[in-house]
Amino acid sequence: MLIRTHNCGQLRETNIGATVRLAGWVNAYRGHGTGLVFIDLRDRYGVTQVVFDGEQHDPDTMKLADHLRNEDVIAVEGTVRIRVGGENPKLVTGKVEVVVSKFEVLGKTDPLPFLPDDSGSGGKLANEDIRGKYRYIDLRRPAMQHILSSRHRLYQSTRRYFDENGFLEIETPILYKSTPEGAREFLVPSRNVPGSWYALPQSPQLFKQILMVAGCDRYMQICRCFRDEDPRADRQAEFTQIDLEMSFVRREQVMEMMEGFVRRLWKDMCGYDVPPIPRMPYREAMERFGIDRPDTRYGLEITDISEVAARTDAAFFTETLAKGADRPRFNSKRGVVKAIRIPGGAEKLTRKLTDGYHEFVRSFGAGGCAAVKVNAQGDFETGIAKFLAPVKNELFAVLGLRPGDTVLFVADLYAVATKALGELRQKVARDIGLIPKPGSEGGPWNFLFVIDFPMFERDKESGRWIAMHHPFTAPRDDQADAFVHADVNDEITIESIVSAGYDIVLNGQEIAGGSIRIHDRTVQSKVFQLLGMTPEQAREKFSFLLEALSYGAPPHGGIAFGLDRLVMNFVGTANIRDVIAFPKTQTGQDLMTSAPSKATDEQLRDVFVKSTHEPPRG
RNA sequence: GGGGCGGUAGCUCAAUUGGUUAGAGUACCGGACUGUCGAUCCGGUGGUUGCGGGUUCGAGUCCCGUCCGCCUCGCCA
Length: 618
What we know:
This protein is an alpha+beta fold. Helix 4 (142-164) packs antiparallel against helix 6, helix 4 (142-164) packs across helix 19 and helix 17 (521-530) packs antiparallel against helix 18 (535-550).
């Protein structure tokens, strides 16, 4: 076999005259019969043109060369020379070509289901199901090779940064104990302990805390996590986190370390200097943006106009405002009227769009969305204009209205109106083209720390308290006393406790989340109690953690980044499957290997499992 | 679990209101061709219209069920 001396992206004018060997895939063939044949040879590094000249080969060899087809694997030996037919500026190797003296077909291909060409046939890629089934062909596309290599660079940059900062990379178990609080888990039956099951970790949360108790001081891991929930375009059941934990820190130190990491990563990945990352309390994010991960690349902020709306005769405002009662810090239970001013909306937002917004907010539980335009004379027009006339001046002042604007209103309970307008704000921004493409297109990267989350919220279904982040999140330092002394039945106090959690938000996307952890057994027990766990239940599930906390636990905290989403940002895709070498579909299937698949009766017997699945009839 | 879009040649798509033998590009096969670079030109092979049922004189097209892919709500401590 001819062993290559160079790769297909390497040869330049300086190599002219050299005898070289290349190997790779046939990317294109351009034959002129037995007289002259061109082959574009491709590997991960690039494309090089190789030439078969009829004067140097017998007709049988030329015939063989003339029948090379896309994706045949070949190796060639030959001489580098300047391109006789002129440069091809599309290729980095485009000034030279290799005149073949010897060649071997290393792997003849069968006809392919599709060609790994980024432009695809007719400018379109094959559909995702067919590309998934033949993933190894799709991954040959230069765009996919670029993504794999970007992901690799991200791993390396990450490991360098944390190594330089004294973090130990430590692996934690994949076969793990079930802790059924958060997401649904994947279960693995045990053979040696009949009737018992492992779970795959939703995250290494408890292990990394215990590593702190174990004196590891600083831990990091690029780890696989598993959550058996329905996927989305940016979510897979099996995904990767950059997970870390630090001892003897408060949230300032963790956030500083994270800001340094983000700065390093963006510098390494795309040469971008991340400016100081601003911080925004959760409540402010909810008030101004209606969401805990605000996209701060554009305005369209939300304004509470309840006071003004109360002075109108509009029953759909005043009836809503009469509902409920306020709460001191979070989770307000009152009825509110909120509005978004859309500058220039009178022109940009068609009737069809604003009608659509009514339906859109209804899908988030709101009663509807009203719209008014401000005409050139500065008067309200259309929709609920007549109800607003009496408070026109106040509305203009509080919303900063100008002729040509549109205002969108939602009146509902605080939580519903906030959520609906938060979602609507993003939809309007998309509709009128306010969102720049991040990264590669030169658009801005807007980072934000969101802090001061509530510790607890009510579960919508059961009405029980649940931890907003997770049950190991500590109260903010100045809240600890209030929390420890709070009556668990004192709803208003409990819901106003602020946690020591923090998220990093990039362009409206949560890319990392973490917290200072509870390192005090008493505080941890109180959290479990509040979450409705008896001491016995807490011990049953988390005895190892509670014990660990009782044997000399350092204060500690950490954070986890969603690695897949980071890569998505750097390579500019909205599809998480693009950045995972072997992804799964919406039903969690791997189209290439056909996982999941049936287990044999024998396999099931070995692990003491009996299937209750009834095969479909017929 | 709910909602939406889609499934026609290996691939990407078309096919009028339900109406003749389901077409095109590309890939593949054969042929021509000595400077191409998405080579070109000529010819050819290729179809269980996802699957099952129904309506109809007649179904790619309409109806019911089902499978698969994508988007989305719920869900994702």
